[in-house]
Amino acid sequence: MQRLVATAVALVALVAGLVIYNSLPQAQPQALVYEPARQLQPFTLQGSDGSQVTNERLQGQWTLLFTGYTFCPDICPTTMADLRQIMPSLQQHTDTPVKVWMISVDPQRDHVERIAAYTEFFGPEFFGVRAEHPQLYPFVNNLGLMYSIPDEGATDYLVNHSAAIILVNPAGHLQAIFKAEHTMGEIPTVNMQQLAADFAIIADN
């Protein structure tokens, strides 16, 4: 009899614990998360390995995408280095490969060989893509990002571009946007600790 009572009490405690757990507020990512994820428009780009890159290349992996260029003096190398640093943390939360794509927004100067050398410096998870403006601009715009096009004939110039990072899920669909933090006197960058925390929530779900 005592054993039955103990079992009943244990079951009641278990059910009560589950009810309390489910009623607690669950952790929510601070990133802008699309539910359901958004399908990307068809695109054709050139990869830093010389291959033709289409939507299919995004499938079977989590992909972090951001706009940049190899002549960028601040945001791009900072973002690349920060992503390299948190890559092991991201990979801990998924059995699916995690990759980084740098989308060059400077097709005039960023040829394939230059992008390849730039991205390979940061590790095998990093990949570069490029295209001429007629193909590049619609792709970047579809991601919800932007960049400026320099004056025709300009040779020494900066390219203004978004500092946000896009997350594409293993189905090849846009899952989330990690927005950059803007602080007076500092370059806008994404908070990598928050990105890692948000990615853990998204990947686990």
UniProtKB/TrEMBL annotation:
Disulfide bonds join 72-76. PROSITE patterns: THIOREDOXIN_2. InterPro entries: SCO1/SenC (IPR003782), Thioredoxin-like_sf (IPR036249), Thioredoxin_domain (IPR013766). Keywords: Copper, Disulfide bond, Metal-binding. Pfam families: SCO1-SenC. One of its GO terms (molecular function) is metal ion binding. Cu cation binds at residues 72, 76, 161. Residues 34-197 form the Thioredoxin domain. Belongs to the SCO1/2 family. This is Protein SCO1/2. It comes from Pseudidiomarina maritima.
